[in-house]
Amino acid sequence: MEQSNLFQSITLDALSKVFADEKPQGGAYTEGSALYGETFAFQVAYSAERLFKNLQVEVESSIGLPFHVRAVGLVPSEMPCYYDHDADVLRTTAGLYPDPLYELEHTAIHALPEQWRSLWVHVELDDTVQPGDHEVKVTIKSEEGALLATNSFMLNVIPAKLPKQRLIHTEWFHTDCIATQYGVDVFSEAHWGLLAQFVGTAVKHGMNMILTPQFTPPLDTAIGGERPTVQLINVEVLGDGTYRFGFDRLTRWVEMCRNAGVEYFEFSHLFTQWGAKHAPKIVATVEGVERQIFGWRTSSTSAEYRSFMDQFLPALDGYIKNNGLAQQSWFHISDEPSQDQLETYMAASEMVRKHLSAYPIMDALSSLDFYEQGLVQRPIPANNHIEPFLRSEVPDLWTYYCCSQDDQVSNRFFNMPSARNRVLGFQLYKFGLQGFLHWGYNFWYTQYSANQQIDPFRTTDAGAAFPSGDAYLVYPGEAGPVESIRLEVLHQGLQDLRALELLESWIGKEKTVALIEEGIAAPISFSEYPRGNGEWLLTARERINQAIAAHCCLTNG
């Protein structure tokens, strides 16, 4: 590696987190492998003894595809974790943490005295690339063009294509947060344009299911409070106690999402969070005037809401079937009900299943009783509560995590090692899970949506509610989504899952799992896996790649 005496740099893997006040630990990462259809990334970290402004970055390679270089930005975290966190964290102090990935055309790159920064370098491989080794050179020059550093990486391209993702993956898409953050009217043309951008970014990173707000989702809302109305269904109250429903806006939503590559539509919850005690906010036209007809004042079991559901759900069912959505539509009742709310959840479940029994109905919950009593068809336990569901062999099982899952299990807070984010792919594969859910793709409000005007680049903990990194994976940039290293690393985990499925198709699951677990002290579970900087994970993925390469050679030979 060539570099100036005043400037130093090092090539790192994509699992390293580079803090401004700490020299990266461990050695350089200078070689790796990837498959066709895979996005491969590495980093170049740098530091200088004096100020260098407006650095120039160039990438040269024989791969023949463009490399995307972004600057890893720093954002504040006042609340990196709760007090009872485990030991598998990088630090616990408030400060600046690496996370957003800034496009170079939108930001200047500086080397600040005695500080470390990094560049995120990635390429999206396809089968136009010649198999074999390709050297990638990343050159950093001063504003005046003087050479400061050249870093080399050797990427081995394996001529096998990642299979299509089978896992169903949803990160809850908060339509209202986008309108609020950009100051546009809900479902205005400007809003639709932004929605398309953020949906596209989600799909590109392995999210193939979208939270669809037929009515304003009753999620993370204070009791008695409300979020901005983002209702796709037009409702008109007629004089005889009946309703007329309009689906034009839903049709536009479906078309937008399908164009972006969305495969599944997750219709938002039909009852309020934490027990299904009330109806969601529903707005309707009454005698020519638009007003709210249901909400916190509406008991979930009231005659009025039952009548509404008995009319709306058959109408929605008809729309779904007429528009070819029958195999792609999923439903929710209420998010995260507890054991003491079983009775109200049961009543709500019966109302929904009366009309929608042909569709998958799923909810995030942690008590096996809801499933065993037949109240929910597809339970989604948190990854720290999943063991009883695995022992009971619940079919088509999903999992999720959120702010509460901070003891030994996978998660993606700012202060956690990136390996703790990416290992989820190995876990999902080993236990054959059908889906993964998370509540925060772009939740840019404070907890309970009490404050709807925050700056996500400054308030990263939802107002001292959740550890930084829980509430969102993307930032609202001026030109659209600003991605994060957590988003990219999660996608790497999904790519690991697909590579494992490819290898399994050739050698079987038992041998594939054995390759993952080779040399480790205990079998992988959702709470048990090697800790540290990710060296084990990268080594395991390399074993998988080499097994795939060996099979390719045998097949082609």
Explain what this protein looks like in three dimensions.
By secondary structure, this protein is α/β, with parallel strands linked by helices. The chain has helices at residues 175-182, 189-204, 248-260, 303-322, 342-356, 368-372, 387-391, 418-422, 424-430, 485-507, 509-516, 535-556, and strands at 2-3, 7-13, 31-36, 39-48, 56-61, 68-77, 95-103, 116-124, 132-141, 147-161, 168-171, 209-212, 234-237, 243-246, 264-267, 282-286, 289-294, 329-331, 362-364, 378-380, 398-400, 435-438, 475-477, 480-482. It has a domain at 168-484: TIM Barrel (Alpha-Beta Barrel), CATH 3.20.20. The protein has twelve helices and 24 strands. The strands form seven sheets. Strands 1, 3, 5, 9 and 10 form a five-stranded mixed sheet that branches. The chain has a five-stranded antiparallel sheet with strand order 2-4-8-6-7, with helices on one face. Helix 4 crosses helix 5 (342-356), helix 9 runs parallel beside helix 10 and helix 10 packs across helix 11 (509-516). It is globular. The two termini are 37 Å apart.
Quick synopsis:
This protein is α/β, with parallel strands linked by helices.
Topology:
Layout: E1 2-3, E2 7-13, E3 31-36, E4 39-48, E5 56-61, E6 68-77, E7 95-103, E8 116-124, E9 132-141, E10 147-161, E11 168-171, H1 175-182, H2 189-204, E12 209-212, E13 234-237, E14 243-246, H3 248-260, E15 264-267, E16 282-286, E17 289-294, H4 303-322, E18 329-331, H5 342-356, E19 362-364, H6 368-372, E20 378-380, H7 387-391, E21 398-400, H8 418-422, H9 424-430, E22 435-438, E23 475-477, E24 480-482, H10 485-507, H11 509-516, H12 535-556
Parallel strand pairs: 3-10, 11-22, 12-15, 13-16, 15-18, 19-20, 21-22
Antiparallel strand pairs: 1-10, 2-4, 4-8, 5-9, 6-7, 6-8, 9-10, 13-14, 16-17, 23-24
Helix pairs in contact: 4-5, 9-10, 10-11, 10-12
